[in-house]
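Tip: read the tokens left to right.
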């Protein structure tokens, strides 16, 4: 058994401590023409974990997460959220899940309050409950001062925060976030980290996709490394990285050492 297989089996076998997994992916596969984007991936996200999914651009992370939450239909395989099938019981699975896709599109001619209220009404949240949740989210996300600002005029950091607010609005047990910190300023990033850490501390589970290794090491307790549509290692952070940093382990498993050493011929001294 290879190192990658051993580590993947550590995360993919059975439920942790007898609890139903927050997210279980079984044989997820997606083909685009002759290109295999995701190749029969098995993965288990333990309940209560802060799970990091890392990989180079084009590794298949976004495709995998899109299938996992029901945004993209797989060619084969299954996804379950706390035991509810994303494709067989979508209403239950999606009620348990909050999603922040990469490049999230949202109604831009609404203010943050109007957007959250609109999303809440679509989800059927009681108006009295909804008003309180919207106000609390605006306060926690530090968006109250932008009360009259349309989403189209939001900065990147503000967009990430209002996107996370829409994902949290209905009280999910699992958050699936695709590159939530990309192009976010340090102040907004610190606020997002605090919110996510609080969510996990309160019993929630988070799946975070990123190609920034130090960020994943800082936040996550469990990780999976993807390359070429496959999971090449998965398990507790300390187990996967061993005595090296996550970035060093990632480069070794993905095979970037040779390119990193070569450099550019015309810049050689």
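Filled-in amino acids:
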């Amino acid at each position: 058994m290879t190192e990658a297989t051993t580590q993947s089996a550590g995360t993919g076998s059975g439920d942790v401590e007898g609890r139903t997994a927050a997210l279980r992916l079984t044989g997820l596969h997606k083909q685009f023409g002759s290109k295999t984007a995701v190749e029969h991936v098995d993965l288990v996200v333990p309940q209560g974990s802060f799970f990091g999914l890392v990989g180079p651009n084009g590794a298949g992370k976004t495709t995998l997460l899109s299938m996992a939450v029901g945004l993209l239909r797989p060619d084969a395989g299954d996804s379950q959220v706390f035991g509810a099938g994303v494709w067989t019981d979508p209403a239950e699975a999606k009620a348990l899940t909050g999603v922040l896709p990469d490049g999230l599109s949202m109604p831009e001619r609404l203010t943050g309050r109007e957007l959250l209220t609109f999303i809440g009404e679509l989800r059927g949240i009681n108006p009295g409950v909804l008003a309180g949740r919207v106000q609390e989210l605006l306060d926690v996300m530090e968006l109250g001062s932008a009360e009259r600002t349309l989403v189209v005029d939001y900065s990147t950091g503000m967009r990430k925060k209002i996107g996370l607010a829409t994902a949290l609005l209905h009280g999910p047990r699992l958050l699936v976030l695709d590159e939530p910190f990309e192009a976010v300023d340090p102040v907004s990033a610190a606020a997002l980290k605090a919110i996510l850490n609080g969510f996990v501390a309160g019993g929630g589970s988070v799946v975070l996709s990123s190609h920034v290794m130090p960020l994943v090491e800082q936040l996550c307790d469990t990780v999976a490394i993807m390359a070429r549509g496959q999971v090449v290692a998965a398990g507790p952070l300390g187990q996967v990285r061993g005595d090296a940093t996550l970035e060093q382990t990632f480069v070794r498993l993905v095979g970037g050492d040779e390119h990193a050493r070569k450099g550019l011929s015309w810049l050689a001294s």
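Confidence is low (pLDDT under 50) at residues 1-14. Residues 101-171 form one domain.
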